[in-house]
Amino acid sequence: MTFIPPELLPAAPEIFVLTMACVILVIDVCLNDEDKTTTHWLCQGALLGGLILTWMTGGSGERITFNGHFVRDAMADVLKVGIFLAGSGALIFARDYLRMRKLVRGEYFVLTVFAVLGMMVMVSAGSFLSVYLGLELLSLSLYALVAFNRDSAVSTEAAMKYFVLGALASGMLLYGISMMYGATGSIDLRTVGNAVLAEGNKSLIMVFGIAFLVVGLGFKFGAVPFHMWVPDVYQGAPTSVTLLIGSAPKIAAFALVMRVLVEGASGLQADWQQMLLVLAVLSIALGNVVAIAQTNIKRMLAYSTISHVGFVFLGIASGSPDGYASSMFYVLTYVLSTVAVFGVIILCGKERDVENISDLKGLNDRSPWMAFLMLILMMSMAGIPFLVGFYAKFAVLQSLVNEGFVGVALFAVLLSVIGAFYYLRVVKVMYFDKGDGDEVHIELASDTKVVASVTALAVLFLGVYPSALMALCVATVR
Amino acid sequence: MGFERFLFYFFSIVLVLSALRVITVRNPVHAVLFLVLCFFTSSALWLLLQAEFLAIALVLVYVGAVMVLFLFVVMMLDVNVTPLREGFIKNAPLGLAIAVVIVIEMFLVIASSKSGGVALSSVVGPVEQGANFSNTKELGGVLYTLYAYPFELAATVLLVAIVAAIALTMRRRNGVKYVDPAKQVVISREGRVRLVNIPVAGDKSEG
After folding, report:
1. From the CA of B155, how many Å to the nearest CA of chain A?
2. InterPro entries of this UniProt entry (chain A) (predicted)?
3. How close A249 comes to chain B (CA, Å)?
């Protein structure tokens, strides 16, 4: 057998990030406990380097290397840039958060970089094997990060739940993959896709496989009825970890659905379309309704995530390129606002976390700027016009109506109106309730304040000028 | 063929019986030992299938490493199994019902060849190879060429597992009174003994 060495250039960002992660791991051992923030800056450097490499080596059509296990295309590039930015935001807020709680340890930052690497692998996956390995790399890093504050019983419990349910989800996914392998004889997504197209929906075992794949993906996304872990993990994890879990992995999960269902199983679109629609409608309904009853702000945002995931699924379920593009737009902008929301929450609490919505009482008197940023973000998530959340919802609903799902679109609109209540309640608490006087006084480190402001203002900006990003999404998904 | 078939049934019966004993035996140490027997007989089954690499890996990794670790853990933890068994009779019907449903479902998927399932008779076995055909060499060749990327990723997953385990369990305890031999060796007289002049009240009587 002659072996042709694979082309390494398309995978340059992954190779760079992995190498840097290993190097940083060694450097971190030699550092004193006092200068662990050096590790943070090194990790930021690794992500920045990955970003630059993605930029430099990207943009020349679809390239497949490593015998089909790795795909580099325009969609992967755009999503990777999103992941790098979200990961970098997660790192910078984590630094302040950990420093205030005296938890700064180098492993935290390195594990974040490994999580980012896992997401990159998922985004560029060309076979079921790399899909699974990327997912495990991401999940394993996240389990450890959730449990990072090991003296906290709540964190440990959240990590255990996340671990057990995550393992169950991986099992489901693997079961589905093994059925697809059994039916098609290949783990390469393109070969599987062609085989599925050829056999159509005649094969019972393929439909079974798709059902398991959708269950696994639903678990990882946190869609109803596989959402049970989301509120507990969001609440139990350190807020900086919640920021990470709520942001970048959503991009990777979107890529996973695109790779596995749209590329790998387009022949069974009629089947997974129905499943995704059911998941989406349930998620939007349950997420919006249950969030109203929450008093804990992280739990409330967890249910809000569930409803947003429903919208992402709606876009994919519409089954048209426009729908995929609108979903991609939705995911990218949702991740942007999540980073900003949790960033502001981290900045508003010092040694003590902002746990309950009532902790934000009178935020306007204490820090008008933070209250204003939170106002923008809440309005955007609620979907109020001229903010990006409105446009994202609008694009998804438009593609749904174009494909003839008018009833579903109406249902989603109605529930979004119900959902607007709990976002606006946060605004009311910030602006119209008087503080008790025992809240923390907010003083901000300058760089995190700048990052929070820039991300929140980007939400405002993209709401007014969404066309450039939307055009990018449309161009890359085709 | 006849002897091979006899071996297959022999190992299969031992495998199933020892697997049953793993969950029915009272003593956890015995359960672990039955599990070792389980792995051992299944590796014999791999050998019958001419998959010698998998057989050896199973013995080396599972029997040699994992199960020994398991034994240590079981012996050190001194698990009390009685409370674990309390709900057994109560939960058994539910568990059995689920097991029956799963068996029926599997049967439906595999046996319903008319509705698109896989007919077992239509599955062809792998090509027969000669006695000097090396499984290990083939696996190695594929692993380091075609599957180099997943292989590296798996290595990264293991690295993350190590980092995570250390980050979560290693703690530097303060106030532990253990002795550092290196410091003991380099100690000098000045570091240990301090001569202090203490004026004594009744000093004049001696002078």
Report:
1. 10
2. NADH-Q_OxRdtase_suN/2, ND/Mrp_TM
3. 17
pLDDT of residue A440: 62
Domains of chain B by residue range: 1-78, 92-119, 134-164
Instruction: Give the three-state DSSP class for B207.
Output: coil
Question: What is the per-residue DSSP string for B77-130?
Answer: HT---HHHHTTHHHHHHHHHHHHHHHHHHHHHHHH-TTTT---GGGPPPPPP--
Interface A-B: count of C-beta contacts within 8 A: 84
Q: Is the pTM of this model over 0.80?
A: yes
In this complex, do B164 and A144 lie within 8 Å of one another by their Cβ atoms? yes
Cα distances from B106 to residues A203, A421, B99, B116, B117, in angstroms, run: 15, 47, 11, 14, 10
In this complex, is the C-beta atom of A472 within 8 Å of any C-beta atom belonging to chain B?
Answer: no
Query: Which of A66, A128, A142, A155 is the best residue to mutate to test the B interface, defined by the most B CB atoms within 10 Å of its own CB?
Result: A66
Residue pLDDT, tens place only, A326-384? 999 999 999 999 999 999 998 887 667 788 888 888 888 888 888 999 999 999 999 88
Give the C-alpha separation, A159 to A143, whole Å: 6
Domain B1-78 has CATH 1.20.120.1200: yes
Residue B207 confidence class, pLDDT cut points 50, 70, 90: very low
**Which alpha helices (DSSP H) does A318-445 contain, by range?**
321-348, 363-366, 368-382, 388-402, 406-432
Residue A125 in contact with residue A66, Cβ under 8 Å? no
Contacts 24+ apart (CB under 8 A), B46-54: B48/B4, B48/B7, B48/B8, B48/B11, B50/B129, B50/B135, B51/B135, B52/B135, B52/B136, B53/B135, B53/B136, B53/B139, B54/B135
Task: Provide the ipTM.
Answer: 0.92
Residue A88 token pair: 């970098």
Contact A67 B146 (CB under 8 A): yes
Residue-wise pLDDT tens digits, A204-255: 788 888 999 999 999 988 998 999 999 999 999 999 999 999 999 999 999 9
